[in-house]
Structure formats: C-alpha cells, structure tokens
Amino acid sequence: MSRFFINRPIVAMVISILMTIVGLVAMSGLPIAQFPNIVPPEIKVNSTYTGADALTVEQAVATPIEQQMSGVDNMNYMYSINANNGQSTLTVNFDIATDANTDQLLAQMRQGQAESQLPSAVRDYGVTVQKSTSSPLIMFALYSPNGTYDNVFLANYAYININDQVTRVKGIASVTIFGAGQYAMRLWVRPDQLAKLNITIPEIVNAVNQQNTVNPAGTIGAEPVPPGQEFTYAVRAQGRLQSVEEFGNIVLRANPDGSLVRVSDVARIELGAQNYSQQGRLNGKPAALVALYLMPGANALAAADGAKKLMEKLKQSFPPDLDYVIALDTTLSVSEGIKEIQHTLIEALVLVMIVVFVFLQGWRATLIPLLAVPVSLVGTFMLFPMFGFSINTLSLFGLVLAIGLVVDDAIVVVEAVEHHIEHGMSPRDATLRAMEEVTGPVIAIAVILAAVFVPTAFIPGITGQLYQQFAVTIAISVIISAFNALTLSPALCALLLRPKVKGSGPLQKFYDWFNRIFGRVTGGYVGILPDRHPQERVESLFPGGRHCGNRLLRQDRSRRLPPG
Q1: What span, in angstroms and rounded, lies between the C-alpha atoms of 442 and 481?
Q2: Is 50 exceeded by the pLDDT of residue 148?
Q3: Rounded to whole angstroms, how far apart are CA atoms 147 and 149?
Q4: What is the DSSP letter of 563?
Q5: N or C: fewer beta carbons within 10 Å in the chain?
Q6: Which of 75-79, 140-144, 365-369, 375-379 is predicted with the least confidence, judged by mean pLDDT?
Q7: What is the DSSP code string of 341-377?
Q8: Cβ atoms within 10 Å, residue 321
Q9: Closest CA relative to residue 139, chosen from 324, 265, 298, 5
Q10: Taking residues 491-507, what's their average pLDDT?
C-alpha cells in the first residue's frame, strides 16, 4: 500500500485533505456540552386535582397512574410528588441506553390506560406527559427596578409575551416560569352566605361552567333565502366572561318570587393568580423566573446564545420599568472549560513541535509529523456523528492525549527514511526500504493502542457512558494516525527529505551540544542494562536506526569492543 502512495503522492494528499474537510464539516454541526449525555431519560406525568389535599391526590390520582405505569419497558424506577395544592408529578426514570422519544410514547400509552380511573376534574384539567431534564440550561429573571409591577404581573407577562417565542428557539425543549401562576378569576366564597341560602360549591362550579361558554349563534340571510336577500350576516354572540362584573352577574338560582341569587351575593371576585404557592424574588424584589431546558443531544452553547439574542430583541418592546437579567447560565462552565482545553491543545501542539524539531534536527523532517497531527485530530470528528458523540470536555481531553500518540507513527517513518538516506540511498528508495521495515510495527502499534482503549466503550451503565467518548476518541485518532503513517507520511518523505548537510551556525552548535548530552544520558542508561552485545542493546533502544542511537553505537564500538 505504501508503494502506491509513494508513487502517487497527490492521491495521499487528496485523501488527507478530504478527511480534514469532512472532519471540519462534522465538527461545525456537532452539539457542544460540558460532559457526555450521562443522565438517564426521565418522563414526567403532571396532573392537577383542584382543591384536593396531598393525601387525596395520592389516592385518587397518583396511585392509579403508578399502577398502570409499573413494569413499563426499560424503566429503572419511578416516584411521585403530591402537594396540598392539588398538583401531582410522577417521574419515571428509564435506562440510559434508551431513546427519550420512545420512552415518552411508552409512558403516554400507560397513562392512557389509567385515564378512566382518574376523577373527571383531573381529566378536564388535563394530564401532560413530557420529557424532562434534570436542571435548566439558562434562567432569565424578569423584574421591575422601581417596583411598579408585582410578581403576578411579571409571571403573566412572561407567559403571554415570552414563553411561546422562547420555546421556538432551536435546542430548547421546554420552558417553565416560576414566581406566580397565570392570571385567573378567583371566587372567594363566604361560607355563612352559602349556608344561609343553602347553596353548595358544585352548584357554583356548574353555574360558572354553563354561563362562561362560547356561544355560536349562526348566520342571518344564509342560503336558502327568499328572493331579494342580498347580504349574509354572521352573528357573534357574547362569548366567555372577561371582567369581574360579568362573573359577579352569573346567576346561581332564580327564586319563586322572581329574585335572583348571583355569584356576587355569595363570593368576592377578583383577578389574581391561579395559585399562590410560590413567589419569585430577585435581590428581595418581586420577579418572574423563566427557566429554559435543553433538548437532549442539542448544542448547549448555540441554544443559550439563541435564547440570549431573543431576550435582547424582546427587551426592546418591554413596558416601562421592566427589565431582565440572566440569573443562571450553565453554559459559562462549558465555554470556559472548552476554551481552556483549546489552549491546552495549542500548547501541547507547540510542545510537540519543539520536541520533534530538537530531535529530528531539520525543518523538512519536522514538517512531516506536524502535517500528520491536524489530519489525525480533525479527521477524528468525521466519525463523531456516526457514534452519536458530542464535543465535550472528555472528548477534547482525549484529543489532548492523542497529540502525543498520533505524532509517533510519523516520527518512526521519518527516522527510518533518514537512516537510509544517511547510508547513501535516494529519498524515494530510502522511503520504499523504510516502509518495508516499519509497516508491520506501525500497524501493530495502532492495533495494540486501540485494543487498550476500545474495551472501555463496552462498560455498561453511566460509567461506560462517561468514559466511552474519551476512549473511542483516542482509538479513532490512533487508527487514523496509522493510516496517515502508511499513506501521507511516506509520500511526503519521498518529496521533502534530503541528505543533511552539517552547518556552522548557532543552531548547529545547539544540535551538537544536545547530541552530546543525549548521548551521555543514553550511554549511562545502556551501561546499566544486562550484559549483551553493544549493538543489540542500542538497536533495542533505537529500532529503525535513530540518529542519536547510531552515534552512540559508533562511540560504544570504539570504546568497548575488543580488537578485531
């Protein structure tokens, strides 16, 4: 294979360029997160039983749903939380290897089986089944700097003007608004008046449901009509009630003497919040907290940036004395962590460049390993979509570690080629000869390194999910590096390498000093090895004939071999 690419170097270059381009394209579309997705999918079943206490909600709502949900496929566990405000939340935790959309469908089917056992008030209010994430991605706090608005107004402003638009941001799965409930027409009944007039709560509820409706009234002048009718009119009757006065005029009872009992006679009506179980505060002032949750597998940084830009746009239409701040932003740790890893990548690449240049002692020889490094690292990203990986802290750490591994294969090829060039062979013939010697070792090194890291990907559970991307990233980069060492590196060696000519400048003086020091250190190490033939010891330390090893071999022969 190497002979083919040595004779056709353009093919090797085109393959490497294509790998780099595909890696860059894949990298631009990959999700960015702090860690791999190690949180098992969770499905939440939310329901409300208006007016019921926690024990009643548990018995009438939570228990029937839990009985039907028990045993759903791939479920780890489930638990429910029931509150005295009538709300019930059942959380079902599924295996980490399952798909969240499939889990939601399974939970929806089980909840549908329990629908007939739930009270009618719960069914009318609605039972929701939705995917859930453990913590919000970002949270905005709406507040009034001068205290003009209370938390009820702020929460409802967020429901009406912000909620729907934020949910359309790419990567946002759901939005939760904390601080107060939505606006509601509240009827505070007077028990003494109810007892005096012998009126029950269900009678009030039925009267409100019957008289607070949408009433279609049809049309006037629709076909068939008598001759001469030229116009058709749509009749719009009074619909749902809107004001406090309209709700107060709802008739509860008509007495035999013609008098009417209205809601205002037995209750105080006001426009307030649906519930007062929570209140939002920002630095002691009323506030509404808008929490945004990330869609599984989405790009956290892109979703947060989209939400921030949308809030800046919506801020332009805020009423006077209304502002917002970012109360929580979990992407800060992601961006800062990735930024630090990028610095580490650059620093590691520079250190590798310096070390390679010092040991190979020539810019032509140094250029070949340095060209192989970005091809191996960037080319690794082209397989990320296939495995469902993201750009996160662990995968980038794997690339940092891989820098020192992917450069070794190219260095082995370069040193082997330079060894034969020093013995008088042409660059092309030296490359062909060197590849016959090092092809097997390069493949063996790649296979052994992959065998070390790949088994980590098969560890089950959260632990395996956590280290899977780290291990597979290194294994992929090592395999690509070996491929480059058999294709791109020999092609470049045949084109770039030339016989070295010893100079006389300061750089050459540094090389001579470094070679003397390195030779002494290596000689001391060789001296403590078991007694073998000097040539065997040096060749074991420097397979393929490295330059420093050859120099040490010549010194060792002149110093230790017997005459003849």
Answers
A1: 9
A2: yes
A3: 6
A4: P
A5: C
A6: 365-369
A7: HHHHHHHHHHHHHHHHHHHH-SHHHHHHHHHHHHHHH
A8: 12
A9: 324
A10: 78
- In this structure, the strands spanning 281-282 and 323-329 are unpaired
pLDDT digits (tens, 9 = 90+) for 263-277: 888 999 888 877 777
What does the buried/exposed string (b/e) look like for 123-160 if buried means 16 or more CB atoms within 10 Å of the residue's CB?
Answer: eeeebebebbbeebbbbbbbbbeeeebbbbbbbbbbbe
- Please give the Cα distance from 231 to 210 (Å, whole number): 33
How many residues can be counted in the chain?
564
Q: Centre a 10 Å sphere on the Cβ of residue 83 and count the other Cβ atoms it contains.
A: 15
Residue 261: what are its φ and ψ, rounded to 5°?
A: -105, 120
Q: Give the number of C-alpha atoms closer than 13 A to the C-alpha of residue 131, restricted to the C-beta side.
A: 20
Q: Could you read off the pLDDT of 434-457 as tens digits, one per residue?
A: 888 888 888 998 888 888 888 887
pLDDT number for residue 140: 92
Among 161, 189, 188, 210, which Cα is nearest to 271's?
Answer: 188
- Rounded distance, CA 59 to CA 66, Å? 11
Q: Which two tokens stand for residue 491?
A: 């092609």
Helices and strands, number each (H, E), in the chain: 23, 15
Q: What does R_g of the chain's alpha carbons equal in angstroms?
A: 37
DSSP 116-162: GGS-HHHHHH--EEEEE-SS-SEEEEEE-TTS-S-HHHHHHHHHHHT
Nearest to 294 by CA among 329, 339, 340: 329
Amino acid at 86: G
Res 151 pLDDT > 70: yes
d(CA 482, CA 530): 33
Residue 214: both structure tokens together: 């949408």
Provide the β-strand partners of residue 290. Answer: 140, 177
* Sole residue written with tokens 């090797």: 12
Dihedral sign (CA 362, 364, 365, 367): positive
